[in-house]
Amino acid sequence: MLPRVPQARIVPDMGEISDGASEDVETYMQTLQLLERLHRRLLDLIKDEFERLGRQELTPVQALILYNLGEDEVSAGELRSRGMYQGSNVSYNLKKLVTMGYIHHERCDLDRRSVRVRLTDEGLRIRRIMRELFIRHAEGLLCSGILNEPPLAKVNQQMRGIESYWVERIRYIY
Questions:
Q1: Cα–Cα distance, 113 to 96 (Å, whole number)
Q2: 56 lies in a domain?
Q3: Are 147 and 141 a contacting pair, CB within 8 Å?
Q4: Domain-located, residue 8
Q5: Within a domain: residue 133?
Q6: What is the rounded distance in angstroms from the CA atom of residue 162 to the CA atom of residue 160?
Q7: pLDDT in tens, 38-71
Q8: What distance in Å separates the CA atoms of residue 45 and residue 133, rounded to the nearest whole number?
Q9: Distance between CA 47 and CA 133 in Å, rounded?
Q10: Long-range contacts (CB closer than 8 Å, 24 or more residues apart) made by 29-32
Q11: CATH number at residue 32
């Protein structure tokens, strides 16, 4: 049997890369797919929880907006940068949430173009539902041992590193 000769792999838009690096590139591509899939699954979990509670008036993205808003009063731009609202129009969702009574909004005194938003009591109730859901999931994951190896703190550190790298690339564009 002949020894395996390392071959360069072709990755779209990246040209040739060495065989050693190609494994890392493939792993990174899998990570990207997994991140997207995890986000969709998170939205599915939220949707199921609100259907179970008979609260179908909220979309999963709207529930995430309420959760991420927290007890702070922030601008719409700040809220947008906090969250993960894949493929959604945050301004549209904020307007809907105001109409449904989950968010209170008011124009900033100094800059009338800027709007500050905060949760109403009903919005805070939804946020508590979301927090309880996430706590149940964390407890279940802890009991199952899924979060042990590698430790979730290490995974989060790596994800923050990827985020920082992406932010640098975005700033480079402009």
A1: 19
A2: yes
A3: yes
A4: no
A5: yes
A6: 5
A7: 999 999 999 999 999 999 999 999 999 999 888 8
A8: 9
A9: 11
A10: 31/162
A11: 1.10.10.10
Rounded Cα distance, 1 and 111, in Å:
74
d(CA 90, CA 61): 9
Residues 6+ away with beta carbon under 8 Å from 6:
18, 19, 20
Overall number of domains in the chain: 1
Instruction: Using DSSP, state whether 62 is helix, strand or coil.
Output: helix
Range of the domain at 66: 16-173
Residue type, 35: L
Least confident interval from 10-19, 75-84, 123-132 = 10-19
Q: How far is CA 107 from the centre of its chain?
A: 27
Dihedral, CA atoms, 80, 82, 85, 91, nearest 10 degrees? -20
Q: How many CB atoms lie within 10 A of CB 60?
A: 20
Q: Cα 85 to the chain's mean position, in Å?
A: 7
Token output for 72: 């702070």
Smallest Cα–Cα separation from 42: which of 22, 64, 68? 64
What is the model's pLDDT at position 84? 64
